[in-house]
Design goal:
alpha+beta; binds 2-(butylsulfanyl)adenosine; seven-stranded antiparallel beta sheet; 5 domains; about 35% helix; D-amino Acid Aminotransferase, Chain A, domain 1
Length: about 675
């Protein structure tokens, strides 16, 4: 049983399996869930749907309940999420940041209400709030000033994201309001990204050749865990506060008092929060919010009901990972049944082949759907969907609609079993498989990949062709003005004038910037080619090793593997790229068009830098952090972001931070920027 890769979620009746089987399944489930927690919480790139994950989790809970002997302190059912990654400093929360039990149906919610009423011996009042689909954070104010903030992590310890939180406008540097602020206030809230800001951010990312975020939650989580706060500043992040973890110096007795206080202090609360005093109220609130959901400018996936009075909460207590005084009530995923007409294969701008279900158009929660993704070949097989079948389709938030399952139907003619084509449906090149996915290797000539590749080629971090943005490239491709990336160099002013929004002057400008991009350093050029797995850093590592394009073209996979940072997937991908004759044809065409790739300067290793680790603190006068780091690496050293026993030098700029104290403690050599610049010159 492997629950890591495309896990099966149909299980045999729990009463019919042996203890041995149960033990094996428990172990496999724990491993699988840990892995998916890691992808979701740490890497922000889930591989399975929430529904699938929930089924795995539920099965594990059931098995543990039936076989108490298999219980384990470290089981995923006993904690909230995965361990935080090591890169950001870990920090202990003021109080456990618990998770919420969730009901999917009215029955589950009624059961919660019933048990609360029973334990409290009376009618409880609730605070009903939207359940945000964002990233949970702890924010601490000391004597009214913003002190620190962290991610939820495993619920007990999270990652210190103080600097990133500071860049969010709605996280105030000081509490407002009359009177003395609490000596210590630790609050819990949710950082989220609004739908509009998310679309805009993704548009910019695509323009720059970066992968777009899958959804606003991933975008918010990805940004918050950035090591460099500069990359977070100015991003459309927002926060709503909804809970107290600790408060010294202020007596607060209920959720509504807390929310009122939050407002006075300037801690943003959600305008949809309501007090409910009966189950009917809760039900109405749930219905109203479900109706409103689509129109809201941020994503919510349910409501949360929290017992109002803190004294009541105390009476109710908590479970291992969730309180007994609160419960989420999720919204129904938007699903409809329709007929699958055909399974087409779509080639994405990165060359990935995706099976897509073409459907009889159907209205799913107010949006007409006629296509839905089937993700990959294995998934189509597992779901066993074929043309002619009735299928259930689901649309969750802003993500692409997906086929959930086949709905059984007697009789009726079924089409053929699906098989991934061996050749790219767009250009005919032989496709290759990596993990569960298939790719077309002809990145430079395949029509389907064209606009994405050219957009990346022209982006600021690649060939940096000014005025050649996303829309312009798409229009060029649509109008057949370019058939491959090399064609851009042949475009005349009179051609460019045909593009929307271009007149004589702007067309001349664009032509000039295209023409002036003909000289590029090898690493930049290599990066610009959008080779699968070759980002900035790997492009530089490879370029430094081979120094000329000719040598890279001839490099065998086994040679590439010898470079320390180049793993199997990368080596394979690079050699595959250069083995594809269409790619070579386009490279030659680029050469003929006048593109000159400059030889890569070798790594100038300096004695003082070799094998040494540098850390920076404070603002440097002449260099940005990234430039300084690059210089260290180019000189043969290593740049790290935090001080440890392995640090050799701490370079101190204006207004240094806490790293200075740490460096003193670890007896790290401390140097000023001036001295650092001198070292670089020698
Ligand atoms: S209260 C102990 N209120 O839902 C109570 N949580 O697993 C804990 N969430 O990660 C949380 N909206 O980040 C609360 N209005 C809200 C919320 C909310 C979203 C998140 C929370 C947690 C998840 C539940």
């Amino acid at each position: 049983m492997d629950f890591k890769k495309d896990p099966k979620t149909k299980f045999r009746n729990i009463d019919k399996i042996s203890r041995k089987e149960a033990r094996e399944q428990v172990e496999a489930l724990r491993e699988g869930i840990n892995y998916h927690d890691y992808l979701y919480y740490v890497k922000n790139s889930p591989r399975i749907s929430d529904a699938k994950y929930d089924r795995l989790f539920k099965r594990l809970q059931e098995l543990e309940k039936k076989y108490p002997g298999l219980a384990d302190e470290n089981s995923p059912t006993k904690r909230v999420g995965a361990e935080p990654e090591d890169k950001l400093k870990k920090t202990k929360h003021k109080a456990a940041m618990m998770s919420l039990n969730a009901a999917l149906k009215e029955d589950g919610m009624k059961e919660f209400h019933r048990s609360v009423r029973q334990k409290l011996d009376g009618k409880p009042a609730y605070s009903a709030e939207p359940k945000f689909d964002g990233m949970s954070v702890e924010v601490i104010y000391k004597k009214g000033g913003f002190a620190t903030g962290s991610t939820r992590g495993d619920g007990k310890k999270g990652e210190d994201i103080t600097k990133n939180l500071k860049t969010i406008g709605s996280v105030l540097p000081r509490l407002r309001g009359k009177g003395k602020p609490p000596s210590l206030l630790s609050v819990r809230g949710e950082v989220l990204m609004r739908k509009k800001g998310f679309q805009e951010l993704n548009r910019k990312r695509i323009e720059k050749g970066q992968d777009p975020f899958a959804n606003p939650r991933n975008a918010a989580a990805g940004l918050l865990r950035q090591l460099d706060p500069q990359k977070v500043a100015g991003k459309p992040l927002d926060v709503y506060f909804y809970g107290i973890l600790e408060c010294r110096g202020e007596k607060i007795g209920s959720q509504s008092e807390a929310l009122k206080k939050f407002n006075e202090w300037g801690l943003k609360t959600n305008p949809e929060n309501r007090k409910c005093s009966s189950f009917r109220d809760l039900k109405n609130y749930h219905r109203r919010m479900a109706e409103k959901r689509e129109k809201m400018d941020y994503e919510i996936d349910g409501i949360v009901a929290k017992v109002e009075k803190f004294s009541d909460r105390k009476k109710l207590g908590v479970r291992e990972r969730s309180p007994r005084w609160a419960q989420a009530w999720k919204f129904k995923p938007k699903q409809e049944v329709t007929t699958l007409k055909e399974i087409a294969v779509q080639v994405g701008t990165t060359g990935m082949l995706t099976p897509v279900a073409l459907l009889d158009p159907v209205d799913v929660g107010g949006v007409t759907i006629s296509r839905a993704t089937l993700h990959n070949e294995d998934e189509v097989r597992e779901k066993d969907v074929r043309p002619g079948d009735k299928v259930k389709v689901e649309r969750a938030g802003d993500v692409i609609p997906e086929v959930v399952k086949k709905v059984s139907k007697k009789g009726g003619k079924r089409g053929k079993k699906f098989k991934m084509p061996r050749k790219c449906p767009s250009c005919g090149s032989k496709v290759f498989r990596e993990g569960a996915y298939y790719f077309c290797p002809a990145g430079l000539s395949c029509g389907a990949q064209m606009s994405g590749r050219i957009i990346h080629y022209a982006s600021g971090e690649a060939m940096d062709i000014e005025h050649l943005g996303d829309r312009t490239v798409k229009e060029m491709v649509e109008k057949d003005m370019v058939k491959d990336v090399a064609d851009i160099y042949g475009l005349k002013v009179r051609d460019l004038k045909k593009l929307e929004g271009f007149a004589d002057k702007s067309a001349k400008k664009l032509r000039r910037s295209i023409q002036s991009s003909k000289k590029a350093r090898l690493d930049t050029f290599l990066y610009a080619l959008s080779i699968h797995h070759v980002g900035h850093h790997i492009a530089r590592v490879i370029a430094e090793q081979y120094r000329t394009l000719e040598k890279i073209k001839k490099a065998e996979e086994s040679d590439l593997r010898k470079i320390p940072e180049v793993g199997r997937e990368i080596a394979k991908s690079v050699s595959r790229f250069f083995a594809e004759k269409d790619n070579i044809r386009i490279l030659d065409k680029l050469g003929k068009a006048g593109v000159k790739v400059k030889k890569m300067p070798g790594k100038r290793k300096k004695k003082e830098f070799r094998g040494k680790t540098f850390v920076f603190t404070g603002e440097l006068e002449d260099l940005t952090r990234d430039e300084a780091k690059e210089k260290v690496e180019r000189s043969g050293g290593r740049a790290a972001s935090s001080v440890s026993d392995n640090t050799d030098y701490l370079v101190v700029g204006e207004d240094p931070g806490s790293k200075l104290q740490r460096a003193k403690k670890h007896k790290v050599k401390i140097i000023k920027e001036k001295k650092f610049r001198k070292m670089l010159k020698t």
